[in-house]
Design a protein that fits this description.
Layout lengths: L7 E2 L2 E2 L6 H6 L3 E3 L8 E6 L7 H9 L9 E7 L2 E7 L3 E7 L5 H7 L2 H6 L6 H22 L20 E2 L2 E6 L5 E8 L3 H4 L1
Antiparallel strand pairs: 1-2, 3-4, 4-6, 5-6, 7-10, 8-9, 9-10
């Protein structure tokens, strides 16, 4: 297997030195649809290989282009992982939908989000909505540099950004497997300024 044999995703080549061809052949590596101008994102499915959580991390770390000047971000929710790369800052997050918990919502929402965010009335929609709020903030804080440095109660999440934009930042909710939510956030300004 050579790098040239690995499957292309929107013109870029994925590379896993151990099993890129085999993983792609069984559908373990799949491109995730993103809007024009957005970074590439790939979904890895450990069930298709099959592999354990450690093997999924190994596959994810070996997936993507040679980093060079690119920023790379990964997220894991076994049996899935998302990998993205971009010239500027980028963050991606994948979460399993969890039951809505008012205390958790209060711990992750800004005061404005608590007032303006219409919490859905159905339980399933409320569970998904709360998880999506968290996932968007996780992706944003990763793109900002260190997810542990940001208090989600003080960070306006991309779910509330008009047209997925906030200054030079862009965001989109990703199409991911059922029972999960995923967000991609990236710097769309001058890549040199985002470094």
């Amino acid at each position: 297997m050579t790098r040239a044999d690995a499957p292309p995703v929107r013109g870029r080549t994925l590379w896993d030195p151990l099993s890129a061809g085999a993983a792609a052949a069984v559908g373990a590596i799949v491109g995730v649809p993103t809007p024009p101008g957005a970074p590439d994102v790939v979904l890895l499915d450990a069930r298709a290989v099959p592999t354990d959580p450690a093997g999924l991390r190994t596959l994810a770390r070996a997936t993507g282009p040679d980093a060079g000047d690119l920023q790379v971000c990964r997220t894991y929710r076994y049996p899935f992982a998302l990998v993205t790369w971009h010239e500027g800052r980028v963050g991606v997050d994948l979460e399993r939908v969890i039951p809505y918990d008012r205390q958790f919502a209060d711990a992750i929402l800004t005061p404005d989000e608590r007032v303006t965010g219409a919490v859905p009335s159905s339980r399933a929609e409320r569970d998904r909505w709360c998880t999506a709020q968290w996932s968007g903030k996780e992706a944003l804080s990763k793109a900002l540099g260190d997810a542990l440095l940001y208090d989600p109660r003080r960070l306006e999440g991309p779910a509330g950004w008009r047209d997925g934009r906030s200054g030079p930042w862009r965001a989109t909710e990703l199409t991911v497997p059922a029972g999960h939510v995923g967000w991609l956030v990236w710097w769309a300004g001058d890549a040199r300024a985002a470094g």
